[in-house]
């Protein structure tokens, strides 16, 4: 448990000099640690993506993160962002099921357990929702960010064209860390 707390502190930038999820990966090894690393990435993605103004009803509207699939990941992400704000916007994490509130999210994480990946990609195409998945090949199929595993480390790839269609602006800092796919 102490190891997970250390990883969480590293991921959210509370330990100076160790601010990126990639640096925490030397410590992370179990599947729960993988969830923690991915949750840290998602939190940082939210800091490095700009949504169009109409994506939020008010300047203080929350950043809504929908999780489609894994209940364990919901708990980890919810704990990761609890009490945090980005540009005055708090986070709300929702566990979703197919067909419910999918378009009410700003970020949608499609876990590998979801059976509707390709349908979701088509349904959400062009909407200002940051789609994130963890299924091989999903970035090429239209998800904006897709997690991959390389040498037991969580990496990610970005589909810039899908981000442009969604009218999301991704920081060059984030893009410099990603594998770009078309």
What topology does this entry show?
Blueprint: H1 2-11, H2 21-24, H3 31-47, E1 49-50, E2 63-68, H4 71-81, E3 85-86, E4 89-96, E5 107-110, H5 117-124, E6 130-133, H6 138-141, E7 145-150, E8 153-159, H7 160-165, E9 169-170, H8 172-177, E10 179-181
Parallel strand pairs: 2-4, 2-5, 5-6, 6-7, 8-10
Antiparallel strand pairs: 1-9, 3-4, 7-8
Helix pairs in contact: 1-3, 3-4
What does this structure look like?
It is a single chain. The model is unreliable at 1-29 (pLDDT under 50). Helix 5 (117-124) links the parallel strand 5 (107-110) and strand 6 (130-133). This protein has a single domain (47-181), classed as Rossmann fold, CATH 3.40.50.2300. It is an alpha/beta fold and 182 residues long. The chain contains eight helices and ten strands. It has an eight-stranded mixed sheet with strand order 3-4-2-5-6-7-8-10, sandwiched between helices. Strands 1-9 form a two-stranded antiparallel sheet. Helix 1 (2-11) runs parallel beside helix 3 and helix 3 packs across helix 4.
Briefly say what this structure is.
Helix content is 36%, strand content 24%.
What is the CATH C level class, in words?
Answer: Alpha Beta
In spatial order, strands of the major sheet run: 3-4-2-5-6-7-8-10
Give the total of domains: 1
Class inferred from helices and paired strands? alpha/beta
Mean pLDDT level: 82
Order of SSEs:
HHHEEHEEEHEHEEHEHE
Per CATH, the superfamily is Response regulator
Instruction: Say how many strands there are.
Output: 10
Strand coverage percent: 15-25%
CATH architecture: 3-Layer(aba) Sandwich
Question: How is the main sheet built?
Answer: 8 strands, mixed
CATH topology-level name: Rossmann fold
The general outline is globular
Radius of gyration: 15 Å
Count the helices. How many? 8
